[in-house]
Write a structure and sequence with these properties.
This protein has a single domain (2-248), classed as Orthogonal Bundle (Arp2/3 complex 21 kDa subunit ARPC3), CATH 1.10.1760.20. 66% of the residues lie in helices and 2% in strands. The chain has nine helices and two strands; from the N terminus they run H-E-E-H-H-H-H-H-H-H-H. It has helices at 2-12, 29-36, 38-56, 64-89, 94-119, 125-154, 168-181, 191-198, 224-251; strands spanning 16-18, 22-24. It is globular. The chain starts with a helix and ends in a 5-residue tail after the last helix.
Length: 256
C-alpha cells in the first residue's frame, strides 16, 4: 500500500494535455484496486489526497472530505467493484474491461463533484454536469490508457488471479517520475479548473492555507530542481502515510 501510494502521488504530478488548453492526470483508483483490492485502494488514495492537501496545498482543506469521497471512496471503491464485475462478465477481455472501468471511475468522480457543487449553491447542476462529464470523458481516455499500460508492464498476474503481488517496481517508477519527469508536466489547468474558469465560478473555489511546499515547489528554490525535490518529498510522505494506514488496518481485529 505504501509503494502504491508513492507511485500514485508521483503519477498524479504528470499532467498531460487534452483539448482546449486543458490538462488531465492519472487518478489511479482502479489501478490500485486491481493491485491491492478496492478496500486497500480507498486507503491508498485517501493517504495521497491528505498529503497533497496538507503539504502541497493541492485542494482546499475545507473540501478534503469531498475529494476523498469522490476520488477514493467512489473512484477506488466503486470503480474497483465495477472492474471486478466487468472482469467476471468478460474474462477473455480483462485488459479492455480494465480500461473501461478506469474510464468510468473518472466519470463517477466528476459526476459526484458536479452534485456537490450544485448542492453547495455554487452553480446549477444542469450547467456544471455536462461540462464536467464532457471534459472528464476525455481525461478518462488517458486514465484508461495509462492504467492498462501500467498493469500490463508490472502486474500482468493481477489480470489472471486474485492473488496479491508485490509492487516494488512502482517504487522505482515513482522516484524516477518525481525526480526527472514531473518538472516537464503540462502546466495547463486541470479539468475542474478549466470548467470552473469557463463557467465563472473559479473565484468561489475553496481557500487554501499556508502549506509548507505549495504547488509542489520548495519556496526557497526555483526551477525544475525545486519541483523534483518537492516531488521526492511527496513520494516519501505518501509512502509513510499509506504505510501507517496499512499497519493500523491490519492491526484491527477481523470481524467474524
Amino acid at each position: 500500500m505504501g509503494l502504491a501510494a508513492a507511485f500514485v502521488f508521483a503519477a498524479q504530478m504528470l499532467n498531460f494535455p487534452i483539448a482546449g488548453g486543458t490538462s488531465g492526470h492519472l487518478l489511479g483508483s482502479v489501478l490500485i484496486a486491481v493491485l491491492l483490492g478496492p478496500g486497500a485502494a480507498v486507503l491508498v488514495l485517501t493517504a495521497v489526497l491528505i498529503v497533497q492537501c496538507l503539504v502541497f496545498a493541492d485542494g482546499g482543506l475545507s473540501v478534503l472530505g469531498a475529494n476523498i469521497l469522490n476520488m477514493a471512496v467512489l473512484g477506488a471503491g466503486v470503480g474497483g467493484l465495477i472492474w471486478k464485475r466487468l472482469a467476471t462478465a468478460a474474462p477473455e477481455h480483462k485488459l479492455g474491461m480494465l480500461g473501461l472501468a478506469s474510464w468510468v471511475s473518472v466519470l463517477i468522480a466528476s459526476f459526484a463533484c458536479s452534485v456537490e457543487l450544485a448542492a453547495a449553491g455554487t452553480i446549477p447542476f444542469s450547467q456544471v454536469a455536462p461540462a464536467m462529464l464532457g471534459m472528464h470523458a476525455l481525461i478518462g481516455i488517458g486514465e484508461a490508457a495509462m492504467t492498462a499500460a501500467v498493469i500490463s508492464l508490472v502486474a500482468i498476474p493481477a489480470l489472471r488471479t486474485t492473488e496479491r503481488r508485490p509492487v516494488f517496481a512502482l517504487a522505482i517508477s515513482a522516484a524516477i517520475i518525481a525526480l526527472a519527469v514531473a518538472p516537464f508536466a503540462c502546466k495547463w489547468p486541470d479539468g475542474l479548473e478549466s470548467v470552473a474558469s469557463a463557467l465563472n465560478f473559479l473565484h468561489r473555489s475553496a481557500p487554501t492555507f499556508a502549506a509548507p511546499l505549495p504547488d509542489y515547489t520548495i519556496p526557497a528554490w526555483n526551477g525544475m530542481l525545486s519541483t523534483s525535490l518537492a516531488g521526492e518529498i511527496g513520494v516519501a510522505l505518501a509512502f509513510l502515510a499509506a504505510w501507517g494506514l496499512a499497519k493500523t488496518w491490519h492491526r484491527c481485529p477481523a470481524k467474524k
